[in-house]
Amino acid sequence: MNAIIIAAGSGKRISNDVKNTPKSLVKINEKAIIEYQLSTLKQAGIEKIFVITGPNSEKFHLEDVTYVRDQNYIEHDILGSLMEAKNFIKNDVLILYSDIIFEFKILQQILESKKDISIAIDMDWEEMYVGRTEHPIAEAENVQLNNKNQIIKIQKNIVNQNEDVGEFLGILKLSSKGSEIFVKKFNELIENHTGQFHQAPSLLKAYITDMIQELVDLNIDVEPILISGKWCEIDTMQDLKNAEKMFPNHVC
């Protein structure tokens, strides 16, 4: 299995001190976010890792990774950044946001999925937003499930009425067939789609969640992997301080 880490974003929301630093290189207890990810991936035996970089690409000096430079990062959002590496979306592949830290047991749960397309979801996500005033709950990338545990909606700020809503971790797993489906559908959209794309103003400005919603709407099976374990997203200084407490001594 290979892995693709989308690391084209900056740390400007965290603080002015790191606004020109790729967010994945921001340090948690003296260790960069992406180094936590690489360590956990390698612990699972995933050796072939691609890192998509954007602005300040020259600041990356990681060993044993293959870089894909997103030279068009101004023109598109995270889905577009991912598709700069579409030649590597093949066979079994993990796709990860670069601003999350997660413990090894979460990765193990994800790797157990046998489905062609699956995404990691935390159903106990709301407790992580207690006191998280700099990143309000309305910004969560939510996933709504039906009574058969099938995904019906994925977008920000889904109101939780029936305890059927979780949060997308930012980890997507594709089998060889799933990779083919994902790339094929994106290529079709590039050729034919115009105007708004789900929650995005256009396909160019789309998120990965918009693409997942497209697959769901096409009745393509996307499996929810309901994880349990310790993880966090780092988007603000408040998040960074919380991550330092959650992952002391570089332990994942």
Quick tags:
252 residues, Spore Coat Polysaccharide Biosynthesis Protein SpsA, Chain A, nine-stranded mixed sheet, alpha/beta
| Percent helix range | 10-25%
Measured between the Cα atoms of the first and last residue, the distance is 20 Å
Number of domains: 1
Structural class: alpha/beta
- Which stretches of 5+ consecutive residues score pLDDT under 50? none
The gyration radius over C-alpha positions equals: 17 Å
Q: Look at the structure and give the mean pLDDT.
A: 93
Number of strands: 13
Order of helices and strands: EEEHEEHEEHEEEEHHEEH
CATH architecture term: Alpha-Beta Complex
> Helical element count?
6
Q: Which CATH top level class fits?
A: Alpha Beta
**What is the approximate shape?**
globular
By CATH, the topology is: Spore Coat Polysaccharide Biosynthesis Protein SpsA, Chain A
User: What share of residues are in beta strands?
Assistant: 15-25%
The CATH superfamily bears the name Spore Coat Polysaccharide Biosynthesis Protein SpsA, Chain A
Largest sheet: 9 strands, mixed
Please, could you describe this protein's structure?
With 252 residues, the protein is an alpha/beta fold. The chain has one domain (2-250): Spore Coat Polysaccharide Biosynthesis Protein SpsA, Chain A, CATH 3.90.550. Helices cover 25% and strands 25% of the residues. The protein contains six helices and 13 strands. The strands form three sheets. Strands 1, 4, 5, 6, 8, 9, 10, 11 and 12 form a nine-stranded mixed β-sheet that branches. The chain has a two-stranded antiparallel ribbon with strand order 2-3. Strands 7-13 form a two-stranded antiparallel sheet. The longest helix is centred in the last third of the chain and has 17 residues, at 176-192. The two termini are 20 Å apart.
